[in-house]
Design brief:
- This protein is of the alpha+beta class and about 210 residues long.
- The protein has 2 domains: about 1-80, Glutaredoxin (3-Layer(aba) Sandwich); about 85-190, Glutathione S-transferase Yfyf (Class Pi), Chain A, domain 2, CATH 1.20.1050.
- Helices cover about 55% and strands about 10% of the residues.
- The protein contains 9 helices and 4 strands.
- It has helices at about 10-20, 40-45, 70-80, 90-115, 120-145, 155-165, 165-170, 180-190, 190-195; strands spanning about 1-5, 25-30, 55, 65.
- It has a 4-stranded mixed beta sheet with strand order 2-1-3-4, with helices on one face.
- Helix 1 (about 10-20) crosses helix 9.
- The mean pLDDT is about 100.
- Bound molecules: glutathione.
- Glutathione (GSH) binds next to loops.
Length: about 210
């Protein structure tokens, strides 16, 4: 059994979606970020940067894994799903691009545009522009390729999709990006994605473009 320590955020949803996709038995332990539970000394033992998500694999000597990209790789290897050996070089590139660029930059856009608008003209413009170029670049890739790492759905898509699922906060107009929208909708219709998206709130609906 996998224990998922998480909160209802894009990084949190990556792992609930993956666990639904691979059909592993799991339970969710909520970490209330508003109450600063991520800084509890007990939690910091398994999360050195005080971040969610983290998993504990109770079937593997209670191994704990932090960092969503590392968790996706672990679960991909363990299940033999969505992380094909012969395509790993491509999958790793798109996964690392999500981890090092797409997530952190869109996360800053959330901070400046959604949560703190009006506080920094520079910050708002910088991350709005970067997010717009991320939409453009993903759209360009997905015009050539059905999924990010090629013709199959992989952990790179699972890592990226929850960030685009926050498109209503971005004010960029997802519908203007045809290939990105095609990819977004195709993934949205997967039953495991719908279930994983609602892992903390059964009433949540995936926002349409
Ligand atoms: N690179 C990390 C980022 C994780 C991350 O930023 N998690 C956020 C929620 S989405 C968090 O725990 N924030 C709490 C805090 O910063 O205090 C990953 O992908 O796992």
């Amino acid at each position: 059994m996998i224990e998922l320590f998480s909160a209802d955020t894009p990084n949190g949803k990556k792992i609930s979606i993956m666990l639904e996709e691979i059909g592993f038995d799991y339970k969710v332990t909520k970490v209330d970020l508003g109450k600063k539970e991520q800084f509890d000394p007990e939690f910091r033992k398994i999360s050195p940067f005080s971040k969610i998500p983290v998993i504990i694999d109770h079937d593997n000597d209670k191994e704990s894994i932090f960092e969503s990209g590392a968790i996706l790789m672990y679960l991909g290897e363990k299940s033999n799903k969505f992380y094909a050996k012969e395509n790993r070089l491509k999958i790793n590139q798109w996964l690392m691009g999500q981890m090092g660029y797409v997530g952190p930059m869109i996360g800053q856009h959330h901070q400046f545009h959604h949560y703190n608008s009006g506080k920094s003209e520079f910050g708002e413009k910088r991350y709005f522009d970067i997010t717009k170029s991320i939409y453009h670049d993903l759209n360009e890739r997905l015009a050539q390729s059905q999924f990010l790492a090629g013709e199959s759905y992989t952990i790179a898509d699972i890592a990226t999709w929850p960030w685009i699922a926050r498109h209503e906060w971005h004010d960029i107009g997802l519908a203007n990006y045809k290939s990105l929208t095609r990819w977004y909708m195709e993934i949205s219709k997967r039953p495991a994605v719908e279930k994983g998206y609602k892992f903390m709130d059964k009433n949540l609906e995936i926002p349409l473009p």
